[in-house]
Design the sequence.
């Protein structure tokens, strides 16, 4: 077959197949994309397409008509609104599809699409739009529907309804930083006369400067540095000597000695060094604490569940909020909806996709009378469900309520803490020894020497190298689609020696299936017939086959019959086309065949079968190969063992591969590895991995942009960046060496400082020169090394997809 | 001599205080919360067709 260059959809960039819909010069992959294009053209908003190439969302999955009916209910809407008066309503909606400047432009020009919208403003980092609308002209439901219609379906979860919205950004550290910077700069300015040797005749002026410095240092000590006191004190109460403790000691000693000098008029003190240290350390902290606002690392099932479901009472459909669902309620679950509570199907049948909950890659058919568990996604028909367990006690939620999930693992202590202990002990020893020496020779100077050593050798250099390196590494990792919860995760990753992968959704891409046909080669006519039949069904396997055959399906067919769970057929006699399970087509069953196969026949003559395999993520094989050099690997899957052979090929022999694992057995597997002394990384994506992700030393959840939910974890990696994992982990390992090297350099400065201090010659000026020199060189070293290493190890930049995924 | 220096001192510190107030205000008003959209937003123009796609090229 000749290779035909296929057009890309002008709206969403998807492949249009052989038969695109065309308007003017543009091709579209589906009616939905075309509709959005026409709508935007009608409102003179064609700019949307000039700002980015194919910026739209695929419109193939239509949003159900009544999906947002629940927003008409005042009680639900009220919980979501920010502000509400007679005229206007303010709401902040989370739109996970936001990914480029075209999105920004379109969403901020919503008022052109509907006059009822007063204004809208996007927060790109949080993927949120703040919308103000006149509710007399457009209802909240209509706003949500308008957004869905143009491809930005708001994600409203139960979590929001319960008021557990995203954490508010904490500004206090930045305020403290600003104050410290202001005071530090001014204290430096007022100390200059001292450095330059001011005319000592001008005593009055000198004293004025001293007192100015005292005044300026007060906000630094009592406001900006309070960070350090709080952490040091909290840890001290629990019996830990936190790394901040020696810092606090240094600040107090410096401040006390400086005050003493000013009060006794013997000198200007070291206010400049002290405020400089506080300022620089706050800079490091702010960098290190940069949070990824678009991610929530603390999710539980409430973020996964929908806000409302359709309840049937006396034949009437009514949208009710999820917490109001009770046992014995009858729910109507539509195509694409999540089953919110365990229940029995009363009527209808549907394919239930449990891939996210159990890891099974193929949907399973559930018919009337069968029990379905919460968390599955209904694909296909409409089912009526009798609730048998309240939402809070269903199978899925009970996973979270297990004791293991509630336990917080003990906080691992950074090696920097250990280092700081030795460092502090060393400094105190030197200070004491020097003080004793001076006590014998010149007792008046002993106290001065003791405090001078503590001032000049405070472990701030260690802390600085730590916070700056961590901050920079976090930033670099984030740039490549790997987002860590905090800096400690870097070290945990560096220590790890065992990586456990989930299969479905982690190593494989659940959206795509690999189809290959076994049997004689199909003729064009046969392909056409099979594609026409397959196109009649909404079954995921049928869809995969339609996509594989890539044929223009005829729309008029006769005698179509679908038997759920078995197969389907159309036409009669020689023209009869049938597809389905082996039992349906051939007559005998082969229960031992774990592969997913669809048999096909025309006119009663067996053509062969379509085998459907998981599609592994691009370049995952190289990634695993590289990881094998430094880590032991294992795969645990909730799926059947149909993929055993390809997986074994991918991983080589000697790798533990386990199938049919329940969430609890995944967790136990991690525990058993930990019991053997391994430091374990778990990489997973679904709710069935949630326990394992939490139990592992580091849990990494994989995020596809089509699936915005990630279970609680220590780190989130964009699916497109997964192949970079070996390089990213190498960068984490390098982190420690960079910190140690920077620390070594700062020790050299410290030794110089200590030399001046023990010989009782530490003037404020020497302290003021050494402090910024050592700090600047540390910052330069950490930034230079980590950036250089990142460039070396991550030469292959992630593809364009990565930031859409992020 | 003395009074001039005090005058300079006061003026310099009040200028610096103004900057500090400006910084605190900018933090409070959320200007550091979203660093991605403002640089793109400023390029949008009701009639412009030329604004380059910044975010896609980063």
Sequence:
């Amino acid at each position: 077959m000749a290779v035909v260059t296929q057009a890309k959809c002008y709206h969403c960039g998807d492949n249009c197949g052989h038969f695109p819909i065309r308007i003017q010069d543009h091709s579209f992959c589906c009616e939905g994309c075309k509709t959005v294009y026409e709508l935007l053209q009608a409102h003179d908003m064609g700019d949307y397409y000039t700002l980015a190439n194919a910026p739209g969302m695929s419109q193939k999955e239509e949003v159900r008509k009544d999906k947002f009916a629940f927003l008409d209910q005042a009680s639900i809407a009220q919980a979501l609104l920010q502000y509400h008066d007679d005229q206007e309503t303010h709401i902040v909606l989370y739109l996970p599809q936001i990914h480029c400047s075209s999105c920004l432009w379109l969403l901020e020009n919503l008022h052109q699409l509907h006059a009822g919208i007063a204004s809208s403003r996007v927060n790109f980092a949080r993927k949120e739009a703040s919308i103000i609308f006149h509710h007399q002209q457009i209802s909240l439901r209509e706003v949500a529907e308008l957004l869905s219609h143009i491809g930005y379906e708001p994600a409203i979860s139960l979590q929001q309804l319960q008021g557990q919205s995203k954490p508010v950004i904490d500004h206090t550290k930045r305020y403290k930083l600003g104050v410290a910077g202001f005071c530090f700069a001014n204290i430096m300015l007022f100390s200059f006369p001292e450095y330059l040797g001011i005319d000592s005749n001008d005593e009055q002026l000198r004293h004025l400067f001293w007192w100015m410095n005292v005044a300026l240092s007060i906000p630094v000590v009592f406001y900006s540095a309070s960070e350090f006191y709080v952490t040091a004190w909290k840890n001290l109460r629990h019996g830990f000597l936190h790394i901040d403790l020696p810092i606090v000691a240094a600040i107090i000693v410096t401040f006390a000695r400086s005050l003493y000098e000013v009060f006794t008029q013997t000198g200007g003190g070291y206010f400049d060094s002290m405020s400089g240290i506080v300022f620089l350390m706050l800079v490091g902290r702010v960098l290190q604490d940069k949070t990824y606002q678009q991610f929530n690392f603390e999710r539980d099932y409430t973020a996964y569940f929908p806000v409302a479901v359709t309840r049937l009472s006396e034949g009437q459909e009514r949208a009710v909020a999820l917490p109001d669902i009770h046992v014995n309620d009858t729910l109507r679950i539509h195509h694409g909806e999540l089953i919110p509570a365990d229940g029995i199907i009363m009527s209808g049948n549907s394919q239930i996709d449990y891939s996210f909950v159990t890891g099974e890659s193929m949907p399973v058919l559930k018919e009337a009378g069968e029990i379905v568990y919460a968390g599955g996604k209904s694909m296909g028909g409409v089912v009526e469900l009798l609730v048998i367990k309240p939402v809070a006690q269903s199978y899925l939620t009970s996973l979270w309520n297990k004791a293991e999930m509630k336990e917080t693992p003990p906080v691992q202590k950074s090696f920097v803490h250990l280092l700081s202990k030795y460092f502090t002990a060393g400094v105190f020893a030197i200070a004491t020894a020097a003080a004793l020496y001076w006590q014998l020779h010149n007792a008046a100077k002993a106290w001065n020497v003791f405090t001078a050593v503590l001032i000049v050798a405070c472990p701030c250099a260690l802390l600085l190298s730590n916070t700056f390196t961590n901050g920079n590494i976090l930033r670099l990792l984030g740039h490549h689609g790997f987002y860590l919860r905090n800096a400690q995760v870097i070290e945990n990753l560096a220590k790890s020696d065992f990586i456990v992968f989930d299969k479905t959704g982690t190593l494989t891409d659940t959206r795509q299936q690999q189809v290959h046909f076994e049997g004689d080669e199909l003729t064009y006519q046969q392909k056409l017939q099979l594609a026409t039949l397959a196109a009649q069904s909404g079954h995921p396997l049928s869809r995969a086959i339609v996509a594989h055959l890539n044929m223009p399906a005829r729309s008029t067919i006769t005698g179509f019959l679908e038997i759920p769970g078995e197969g389907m057929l159309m036409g009669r006699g020689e023209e009869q086309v049938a597809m389905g399970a082996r039992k349906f087509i051939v007559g005998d069953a082969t229960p031992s065949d774990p592969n997913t196969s669809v048999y096909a026949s025309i006119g009663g003559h067996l053509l062969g079968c379509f085998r459907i395999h998981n599609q592994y993520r691009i370049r995952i094989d190289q990634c695993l190969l590289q990881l094998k050099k430094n880590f032991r690997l294992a795969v645990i899957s909730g799926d059947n063992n149909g993929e055993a052979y390809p997986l074994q090929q991918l991983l080589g022999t000697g790798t533990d591969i386990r199938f049919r694992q329940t969430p609890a057995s995944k967790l136990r597997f991690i525990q058993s590895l930990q019991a053997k002394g391994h430091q374990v990384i778990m990489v997973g994506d679904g709710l069935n991995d949630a326990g394992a992700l939490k139990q592992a030393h580091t849990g990494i959840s994989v995020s596809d942009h089509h699936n915005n939910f990630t279970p609680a974890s220590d780190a989130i990696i964009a699916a497109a960046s997964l192949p970079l994992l070996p390089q990213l982990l190498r960068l984490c390992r390098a982190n420690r060496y960079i910190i140690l090297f920077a620390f070594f350099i700062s020790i050299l400065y410290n030794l110089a400082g200590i030399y001046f201090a023990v010989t009782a010659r530490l003037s404020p000026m020497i302290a003021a020169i050494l402090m910024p020199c050592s700090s600047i060189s540390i910052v330069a070293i950490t930034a230079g090394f980590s950036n250089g290493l990142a460039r070396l190890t991550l030469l292959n930049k992630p593809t364009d997809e990565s930031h859409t995924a992020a | 001599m003395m009074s001039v220096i005090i005058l300079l001192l006061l003026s310099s510190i009040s200028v610096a205080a103004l900057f500090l107030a400006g910084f605190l205000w900018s933090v409070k008003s959320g200007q550091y919360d979203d660093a991605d959209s403002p640089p793109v937003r400023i390029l949008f123009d009701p009639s412009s067709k030329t604004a380059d796609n910044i975010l896609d090229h980063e």
